[in-house]
Amino acid sequence: MLIGTGDPEERADRAPTMDSLDTDSLTLPDVSVLQVISEIGSAAMCEMLPPALHPTLPPAVSWLVYDCKKTPWGPMRLAQTRIECRSGTRPRGLLSHAICNNQQAAVALEQRWGYSVGVGEIDFRRSYHEVHCRVEVQNEIFEDETVLQIGMRNPQPLEAGSIQFVAGMHPVNTPKGYRLLQCDPTHAETESQYGSPIVEEFEPDAWGDARIDPVYPVSAAFCKAEITLPKLRFLCRPGEMAFSGTERI
User: Is the pLDDT of residue 140 over 90?
Assistant: First the structure.
């Protein structure tokens, strides 16, 4: 069994701090969702993950983008970069970083669900032949720079509910110490499609881990869904495997 060999505390310095783990669930209606998965270079396969998590074979990264028309903070777009992995036997996605186009939403996502999230511009477009997402950020390193361009071409219909979305593992500083927080939104799909994946541009430094090296796009899917951000249930100590290191909230 492959086990992560990275420093368990590697992401602690830039992880969000949650003062409380007691949050209610929140349902977001009429969300457009794009998921693109790419194989990544295997040289740093185990180093990118703490011992609590297991790398996939082949190693992969996923980008998960939400276009939300209505939230308590107004319209919101959220793009996530996640390293595909397992926690015990369960598939998971280790959140490397996220970018949101709504400052109020970004603060709430950090404080309530442990998303490591910055603010940027997200262009999300859907046409009859393509779904396209472009993310731009502004800071001293990536001023007005495109840090992600992904999409899906030639959409084909799927039965609603056919797309698999795995729970996220979010590095967070909690009242119990530094942990991996399981965040498992539900996606009630009303329309689903698959197509040819597009990965045009990716700047790994802007997403928290320069070792993420996309080498081969694998899959792309789009859906319309009602998404429920969950009431939190589990934490995991990053230096232990899930069988011994999981804590119930």
Answer: no
Concatenating the DSSP letter of every residue in the chain gives -----S-TTTTTTTS-B-S------EEEEEEEEEEEEEEE-STTTTTTS-TTSEE-SS-EEEEEEEEES--TTSSEEEEEEEEEEEETTEEEEEEEEEEES-HHHHHHHHHHH---EEE-EEEEEE-SSEEEEEEEE-SSSSTTEEEEEEEEEEEEEE-TT----PEEEEEEEETTEEEEEEE--EEEEEEEEEEEEEEEEE-GGGGT-TT--EEEEEEEEEEEEEEEEPPP-EEE-TTS-HHHHEEE-
pLDDT band at 247 (very low <50, low <70, confident <90, very high): very high
Give the count of alpha carbons within 13 A of 67, CB side only. 18
For the cut 70, the answer to whether the pLDDT of residue 169 exceeds it is yes
| Residue of 211, 162, 208 whose CA lies nearest to 189 | 162
Q: Are 138 and 120 a contacting pair, CB within 8 Å?
A: yes
- Nearest alpha-carbon partner for 160 in 33, 26, 75, 25: 33
33 and 64 Cβ atoms separated by less than 8 Å = yes
